[in-house]
Specification:
The chain is an alpha+beta fold. It contains 6 helices and 3 strands; from the N terminus they run αααααββαβ. It has 2 domains: 5-96; 99-152, no CATH class. The chain is 50% helix and 12% strand. β1 (105-111) and β2 (120-125) form a beta hairpin.
């Protein structure tokens, strides 16, 4: 299989081509399926507004061709719902924030105010990076945790020393 697995995967238009791809991945086992997952994950990370529909279709096809990812690894038992949730979170961000407001510096903050633990902050991000981090962490939130995607309007930064 090639390094650009998702591009090859998306070009599968016939049942015969899909079946051949499916057999190839199954014969390679973990490594073959991992390439497909890595390619899907990279596509989610870099996806813009116009890419979400194609991503959703790619995921539907992957789920149809590989309905039991756990056969490749026990850690992939819930991979399809996880990827669906990431795409949905990114889609939500794109629909909530117009393209005209995406320039500038962004940050993602996560916290659970009901427990004693540190606040997690990812500062100084582009919108694309912040949207991906939000989409990555949003599905993993536990009870009482929250996640915030914020645009920075004013910054005063000083460095000690």
């Amino acid at each position: 299989m090639t390094n650009n697995t998702l591009a090859v995967f998306n070009k599968l238009t016939s049942a015969e081509a899909e079946s051949l791809f499916q057999r190839e991945v199954v014969s390679e086992g973990f490594a073959g399926f991992r390439r497909l997952l890595d390619s899907l994950t990279d596509a989610i990370k870099t996806a813009g507004d116009a890419d979400i529909g194609d991503l959703e279709q790619s995921l539907l096809k992957a789920k149809r061709l590989f309905p039991e990812p756990v056969t490749f690894s026990p850690s992939w038992e819930k991979i399809w719902p996880e990827l669906e949730a990431k795409i949905a979170a990114k889609k939500h961000i794109f629909s909530a924030i117009p393209a005209s407001e995406r320039h500038g510096e962004w940050q993602v903050i996560m916290d659970n105010p009901l427990v004693v633990q540190e606040v997690v902050c990812y500062p100084a991000l582009t919108f694309a990076d912040a949207a991906y981090l939000y989409a990555y962490f949003r599905p993993q939130l536990e009870k009482s945790e929250y996640i915030r995607l914020q645009k920075i309007q004013t910054v005063i930064e000083e460095i000690g020393g």
